[in-house]
Amino acid sequence: MRCLEHVLPRIVRFEDYQADLQTGELRKNGTKIRLSGQPFQILALLLEKPGELITREELRARLWPEEVFVDFDHSLNAAVNKLREALCDSTNDVRLIETLPKRGYRFIGPIEVRDGPAARKDATISSEPTAPPPPKELNRPHTARAYAVALIAILLAGLLTGLYVYSRRGRPPSSSVVPPIQSVAVLPLVNLTGNPDQEYFADAMTEALTTELGKLSTLRVISRTSAMRYKQTKKSVPEIARELNVDAVVEGAVQRSGERVEITAQLVYAPADRHLWAQSYEHDLRDVLSMQREVAERIAYEVQAKIVPHDSRPVAHKINPEAYKNYLLGRYAWENRSRESLAQALTYFQRAIDEDPNLALAYAGEAEAYIPLVGNGLMPLPEYLEKATVAARKALALDDTLAEAHNALGAVFLNQYRWQDADREFKRAVELNPNYATRPPLVRTPA
């Protein structure tokens, strides 16, 4: 049996999957699976040499150029995890990708190839290594020439393979200068726990990262609502970026284990599907606010955005994990906007306040939750005005840089016909977070 790298196939099939090595597409039973960038490149490299070890050093040299700043170990692990997730290949029950600890990876599943220049159509290629055929007797006068031809062939094959992988990545600029990036979208973070009950946490981290990135830099950051529709999408990064009209996207994953939180994020220049930066962060849940800011600051730095000076933003304080959990559950419920979910959101916000009376975010969430209640006629206006005012002012007393609290207070003033006060609060919300979607400054003029 011949090694796959010698037949250079276009289509590789294994189990119910089909990988097109030229277009960079992966399908399962004909349905396209979203897998681009480094995860697909790793798959392509593994399929080049089924049954053989692909070392971590080889993956690093082939996929991460020297000019790209990256925490390699975390980035490679994250990329392989994403590949395994796409292939439904568990580390506890390995079918396709075998890990050789501290060495590398090996594709162990049976495969078949199509459209290779020298491959027989539908020829099955075993992933088990086979012994090479015995060498033939060499005619001495032709030995030197044969070695020369073989050497040229090997060098040419290496060059073509390198060019192939290089073209799959998308050609980077001739220098290490970051392409001009003025807009970015934070795609929904993947919940790596596999537990649907933790989905709220992944969505909340996506929202928090979007908000923090919008607050601290001059970047145009697409709203969380617009980006969330791409959750579990099969579209490629360039496709998503074109639809959102952004230069770059942030994608990644989050995992919570007890009181520890790990976020892996990577920044992708969308037109070329070029990975500019990747990093993993692990913190205690009490420091999650600092971690969110740290990730956002690094992204802003990588795209060379103008960052708001540190001394103009409050220090992110430690939080009560249980209080923050209830706050996140409240935000998650608030997104549905139904009578039941809004009541549930208020319950969660109150629990968060009971756990930590100094959690400004919980008061801001409570104040915002009252807005759709009165807007849908589910709460009398006087009751709304009283409760929302108390919650918003309490949030601002604890942290006057919360755009959500200023927006909620602006809505109160709007319903009290205090036009100038409402306009001031809405403008302040936009100043604090230029990407925060507020209600119009004035919906009508006073009589």
% residues in beta strands: 15-25%
Rounded to an integer in angstroms, the radius of gyration calculated over CA atoms is: 27 Å
CATH fourth-tier homologous superfamily of the largest domain: Winged helix-like DNA-binding domain superfamily/Winged helix DNA-binding domain
**Low-pLDDT regions:** 1-8, 116-144, 153-176, 440-447
The CATH architecture of the largest domain is Orthogonal Bundle
Number of domains: 3
Span between termini: 87 Å
Main β-sheet, spatial strand arrangement: 4-3-2-1-8-9
* Sheet of most strands: 6 strands, antiparallel
For this structure, the CATH topology of the largest domain is Arc Repressor Mutant, subunit A
Percent helix range: 40-55%
Q: What's the mean pLDDT score?
A: 76
The SSE string, one letter per element, is HEEEEHEHHEEEEHEEHEHHEEEHHHHHHH
| Beta strand count | 15
Structural class: alpha+beta
Account of the 3D structure:
This protein is of the alpha+beta class. It has 3 domains: about 5-170, Orthogonal Bundle (Arc Repressor Mutant, subunit A); about 185-310, Rossmann fold (3-Layer(aba) Sandwich), CATH 3.40.50; about 320-430, Serine Threonine Protein Phosphatase 5, Tetratricopeptide repeat (Alpha Horseshoe). It is built from 15 helices and 15 strands. The chain has helices at about 5, 40-50, 55-65, 70-85, 140-170, 200-215, 225-230, 235-245, 290-300, 320-335, 340-355, 360-375, 380-400, 405-415, 420-430; strands spanning about 10-15, 15-20, 25-30, 30-35, 55, 95-100, 105, 110-115, 125, 185, 190, 220, 250-255, 260-270, 275-285. The strands form 3 sheets. It has a 6-stranded antiparallel beta sheet with strand order 4-3-2-1-8-9, with helices on one face. A hairpin with a 2-residue loop joins strand 13 and strand 14. Helix 12 runs parallel beside helix 14, helix 13 packs antiparallel against helix 14 (about 405-415) and helix 14 packs antiparallel against helix 15 (about 420-430). It is elongated and about 70 Å long. The chain starts with a helix and ends in a 15-residue tail after the last helix. The model is unreliable at about 1-10, about 115-145, about 155-175 and about 440-445 (pLDDT under 50).
